[in-house]
Amino acid sequence: MKTEIIKINNPATAQDELCRAAQILRRGGLVVFPTETVYGLGGDATDPDAARKIYEAKGRPSNNPLIIHIAHPEDAEQYAVTNEYYYRLARAFMPGPLTVILPKKDTIPVEVTGGLDTVAVRCPSHPVAHALIKATERPIAAPSANISGRPSPTSADYCISDLEGKVDMIIDGGECDIGLESTIVMLRGSTAVLLRPGAVTYDALCCVCETVELSAAAEGTLAENERPLAPGMMYRHYAPNAPFVLLDGAREAFIPYIQSRRMSGEQCAVICSAEEAKALDEKNTVIYGDPEDLTTQAHRLFSALREADVLGCDVIYARKPATDGLGLALYNRMIRAASHTVIKI
Ligand code: TXA
Ligand code: MG
Questions:
Q1: What is the largest CA-CA distance in the chain?
Q2: By CB distance 3.0 to 4.6 Å, which of 10, 45, 125, 206 could disulfide with 95?
Q3: pLDDT band (50, 70, 90) for residue 225
Q4: Of all atoms in ligand 1, which is nearest to the CA of residue 180?
Q5: What's this model's pTM, rounded to 2 decimal places?
Q6: Distance 143 CA to ligand 2 centre (A)
Q7: Is 251 exposed, middle or buried (0-12, 13-18, 19+ CB in 10 A)?
Q8: What digits encode the pLDDT tens for the residues 4-16?
Q9: C-beta of residue 87 within 8 angstroms of C-beta of residue 73
Q10: Which residues surround ligand 1 with Cβ inside 6 Å?
Q11: What is the pLDDT of residues 147-202, one digit of tens each?
């Protein structure tokens, strides 16, 4: 299949391109598009065939459900059974990086929800995503636009390397702002269960919901043989090709540890801050931000994993991040990319 690649920076001046993309989606085709979190691999969420094509292009098992993307929070009415708590969350965080799991209506085929009777609903704030959903006049089902198991794509180039030839169109809308996927919440009455941490943090949810529970997968304590509440929150995910290892210890211990590994002849890549890279002579280092700057680390993590992979080393190291605020989302992705391999230093 030939993939058309187009650039859209401002939807207001790209009406023709958006119409073409919407037409592809309405005819059952696949369009990769930018969101504020990561790029999505989109298809018509009301079309079971489009869902099948998404699973095939991504190489993803079809029992791992897709998120449906809507233009306005109240559009959820057509596809899901909403309640007061959905609207509380919507008022606080939508449009934005929050996904809410609700009982589904028949308008969404089970092929989209991996056979579940619930559906994940998200209203993205990215102007291109919003304009595309509006032009399509349908909800768009979209997982992250990577080959299953690889780090989620935060720029169009990564989508092109993973999916060119497998989708009809890729819309390049520049780098994604946040860089980690949306926060996912399941409502149980007035309790919100946090299934996947993201830029809407645990503390932010606590300001809106009466009770917030952390699932084992969100906390990073899911056992290898345990089934997560969100089927996609597997034990191992986002993995680069080389083994990725988290180092847990004081800042002062990090540089000497890497140096000793190098001395022992190990070819290691390191994901770290600019200052740490300097201390390591900038050899096989990938900078992803200062430890205190969680926003930049989140923005850079997935590209850093891909860049580290290209260095072709035996192993990739990074420091285990703190787990408060946005740190929990960062830790959640890193611990799974590392298949839970943590070394105390
Ligand atoms: O930021 C995001 O959420 C991005 C952008 C493209 O919107 N999308 C994304 O989709 O990360 P995906 O498919 O890579 O991750 C969706 C996660 C999976 O872990 C899936 O198992 C879970 O959401 N999920 C979807 N529907 C669910 C449901 N009904 N019940 C439980 N978990 C669900
Ligand atoms: Mg994904």
A1: 61
A2: 125
A3: confident
A4: 1
A5: 0.97
A6: 6
A7: exposed
A8: 999 999 999 999 9
A9: yes
A10: 35, 37-38, 40, 64-67, 99, 101, 113, 116, 118-120, 122, 142-144, 181-182, 184, 230-233
A11: 998 999 999 999 999 999 999 999 999 999 999 999 999 998 889 999 999 999 99
Distance between Cα 266 and ligand 2 center (Å): 31
Query: How far, rounded to the nearest angstrom, does the alpha carbon of residue 343 sit from its chain's CA centroid?
Result: 26
CB 303 within 8 A of CB 155: yes
Closest alpha carbon to 182 in 226, 129, 132 = 129
Output the CA 263–ligand 2 centroid distance in Å: 37
Q: Given ligand 1 and candidates 79, 99, 301, which is best to mutate, with the most ligand atoms within 8 Å of its CB?
A: 99
Whether residue 226 contacts residue 340, with contact meaning beta carbons closer than 8 Å, is answered with: no
Query: In this structure, which residue's CA is closest to atom 30 in ligand 1?
Result: 230
Joined together, the tokens standing for residue 212 give 């917030």
Strand-pair category, 140-141 with 40-44: antiparallel
Q: Going from the N-terminus, what domains does the chain have, and what CATH number goes with each? A: 4-184 (3.90.870.10), 244-344 (3.40.50.11030)
